């Protein structure tokens, strides 16, 4: 049985009680977690695990193990070794996570504005990027910035729902990224729906409304090959 992924239903949950079910060279495994594991272009969460007797383990990354629900919390070097069965409070670095949520949601808006297949992407706490298959296309930074902020100001709801693997296979346009497949293997796939703007398969964490993203700007547009255009988006605050 895999780890219970609490962030899937509530990305605003910052901490939870949990029990250690494994601890090896890959990291610490919990029976439940609020930590998002690196994947889909979004970094893994960082934070702490704290025991009832006050021992603290700094978590410097979170990665997937053998399958989607196998989550490994990577401790910093020299951290206390916590035994299997130990009860802990798991808490993420919320300031960093919230920036990642804002940035990830802004990239979904960007993918709705630019007509081209997404060939790659990376979410960061302050700036993020999407790469598009766009041969012979001229893009304007200010026009894209204005369009993004308009969608943000309109404060669209951002919700999630699930479809079966078969339903996703029947609607291939729900997968926008050519290089990254959405998390599969459990018989269902999560969709992120920006009301009236965008609907796509995604396992990442997002804000509840676009207005929460705040002001952004397109800071750079680069040619990364004959067909590849890289668009970099930054948070203004």
Please give a structural write-up:
The protein is an alpha+beta fold and 237 residues long. The chain folds into 2 domains: 4-92, Elongation Factor Tu (Ef-tu), domain 3; 97-235, Threonyl-trna Synthetase, Chain A, domain 2 (Threonyl-tRNA Synthetase, Chain A, domain 2, 2-Layer Sandwich). The protein has 3 helices and 15 strands. The chain has helices spanning 94-113, 141-153, 165-170, and strands at 4-5, 15-24, 27-30, 32-33, 47-51, 56-64, 71-75, 87-92, 117-122, 127-133, 158-164, 188-194, 198-201, 216-223, 228-235. The strands form 4 sheets. A 6-stranded antiparallel beta sheet has the order 3-2-8-5-6-7, with no helix packed on it. A 4-stranded antiparallel beta sheet has the order 9-10-15-14, covered by helices on one side. Helix 1 packs across helix 2. The longest helix has 20 residues, at 94-113. The chain starts with a strand and ends with a strand. The model has no long low-confidence stretch (mean pLDDT 92).
């Amino acid at each position: 049985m895999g780890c219970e992924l609490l962030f899937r239903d509530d990305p605003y949950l910052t901490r939870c009680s949990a029990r250690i079910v494994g601890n090896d060279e890959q990291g610490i495994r919990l029976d439940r977690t609020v930590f998002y594991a690196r994947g889909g272009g979004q970094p893994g969460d960082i934070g702490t695990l704290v025991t009832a007797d006050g021992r603290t383990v700094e978590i410097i990354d979170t990665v997937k193990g053998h399958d989607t629900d196998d989550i490994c919390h990577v401790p910093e070097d020299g951290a206390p070794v916590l035994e299997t069965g130990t009860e802990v409070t798991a808490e993420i670095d919320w300031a960093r996570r919230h920036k990642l949520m804002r940035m990830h949601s802004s990239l979904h808006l960007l993918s709705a504005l630019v007509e081209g297949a997404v060939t790659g992407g990376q979410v960061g706490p302050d700036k993020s990027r999407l790469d598009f298959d766009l041969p012979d296309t001229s893009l304007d930074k200010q026009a894209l910035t204005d369009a993004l902020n308009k969608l943000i100001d309109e404060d669209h709801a951002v919700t999630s729902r699930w479809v079966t693997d078969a339903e996703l296979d029947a609607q291939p346009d729900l997968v926008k990224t050519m290089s990254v497949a959405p998390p599969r293997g459990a018989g269902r796939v999560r969709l992120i729906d920006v009301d009236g703007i965008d609907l796509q398969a995604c396992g990442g964490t997002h804000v509840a409304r676009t207005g929460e993203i705040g002001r952004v700007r397109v800071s750079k547009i680069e040619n990364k090959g004959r067909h590849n255009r890289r668009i970099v988006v930054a948070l203004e605050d």
